[in-house]
Amino acid sequence: MLINLISDTVTQPCDAMRQVMSQAQVGDDVFRQDPTINALEEKMATMFGKEAALFCPSGTMTNQIAIKVHTQPLDEMICDYTSHVYQYETGGYAFNSGISVNLLHGQYGKITAEMISKAIKPSYDWLPTSRLVVLENSTNKGGGNYYTLDEVQPIRQLCTDCGLSLHLDGARLFNVLVETQESTQEVGALFDSVSICLSKGLGAPVGSVLIGNQAFIDKARRFRKVMGGGMRQAGIIAAACHYALDNNIERLADDNRRARAIGDHLSTLDYVDSVNPVKTNIVIFTLKDMTAAEYVNKMKNQDVICSAFGEKQVRFVTHLDYTEDMEQRLMEVLGGVI
Ligand SMILES: *Cc1c(COP(=O)(O)O)cnc(C)c1O
Q1: How far apart are CA 140 and CA 313, in angstroms?
Q2: Is the Cβ atom of 59 under 6 angstroms away from ligand 1?
C-alpha cells in the first residue's frame, strides 16, 4: 500500500467524476462557446459575489495573470517570503510582469497590516512603486496556517487607503472555510481578485479559477491567451471542477482532522524537534538529528511519500485519497522510523 502524502494534487478522479467528464457539453472556449466552462465561471463569480471569473490550467497561471493585471513594470508586490508567488512560480512576477518583490517575514506565512504599512515605499523616482499585496490562505510553506477575515479586514482597509490592490492566492481556501465557517461572499468582498485551485484538495485533475470584477477579468482573458492558456473543448476538465465544487468541499474537514492526527502523533515522537501548529491539511515538522532528505528516504522505503521542506523540515499533505487504512498504517510507520 503506497501512502502518497507529497501533496493534495496527487488525487485520482473518482468514477463519478469521470462519468460527469465523459458527459460534459463542450465547445470552443476561446470563442466563449464552451457551456460547461461558462457555467463554471459564472458559478464561481456568483459564489464569491464578484462579476466575472476565468478558467485557467493552473494556479500558477491564475496568480501570474492577476499580478500582470494589477501591476505595471517598475511596480512591486508585497508578500510574505514563504509565498507561492515568490517561491514556486519560477520568478514569474519578474519575468511576466517586470516587477520587483518586497518580502515580509511573517509568522507561518501570515503578514499583518502593520508590517505591510511599514513596507509601503514612498514615491521617489529611484524606488519601485508599491502596488499590490498578495496574501496566501491557507499558507503552503507556512504550514497550512490561515487568516480569519477579521485579520484580513485591516489589510483591506490599508490597501484601500493607500491605493494598493489586494490579491488572494486561495489555492486551498476551502480547507480554511470549512474550519472558520466564513462564507465565500465575505472573502470576495475583501479582495480585488481571488485565485482558487480545483486540482488540490477538491480533487479535480486540472483547473484553477481567477475571480474579479468584469474589467479585471476582461484584461485577464487577454493575458491568459498570450500565456498560451486559451483552451478549446476544455469543458471536459471544467466538468470535473463542477463535480469537485458540488461534492468535495465539506469533506475537506476530514483532511484537516487527519492532518491534526498526524501532527499530534509526531509531537509524541523522540526524533521530532517541533511540529508547526496544524490548522488545515498540511503538516510541517522539524527533525532533531536526521536531515529531511534522510527522513524522506526512510519513509520511502516504507512506501510513504512525503517531501523535504528545508534542511530539517518535512511536509505531509492529507487529501481525499488518503484512506482510513492508510491512516492506521502511517501511524505505525511514523512510530517505527528512527
Ligand atoms: C499549488 C499552489 C498554487 C498553484 O499551483 P499550480 O500547481 O500551478 O496549480 C498556488 N498557490 C499555492 C499556495 C499553492 O499551494
Answers
A1: 13
A2: yes
